[in-house]
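Risk register update: the risk of archive-format incompatibility is retired. Evidence:
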Amino acid sequence: ERAAYYGMAEQYYLQSVAIDPNYQDGLFALGTLYHFELERHLDAIGALETLLARAPTHIQGLFVLARSHATLGNVDEAAAAYTRIVENAADSDVADRARRNRQLLLGEAE
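Archived output:
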């Protein structure tokens, strides 16, 4: 039953982006669905890269992008996403969290 709902969600998100290719919420939701629920990390990266081409400082999108890359072992790409968060986050706590995640990913001492 859960799989059917995820499939429906995917179709609705895809439809929302087809109607408005600049619809950031639809792209973010699609990337989040692919990463966290469907474990389709390459699809997540595709959706999130599309989102970030339209909204380069979408902080939540950058976090999910970093996680997708890290899950696939793409350490450099994940670290680059965390760096973008650090450079663009308006909230210092968010920047600190991204900085810590980057350090953990790269095995750097805090």
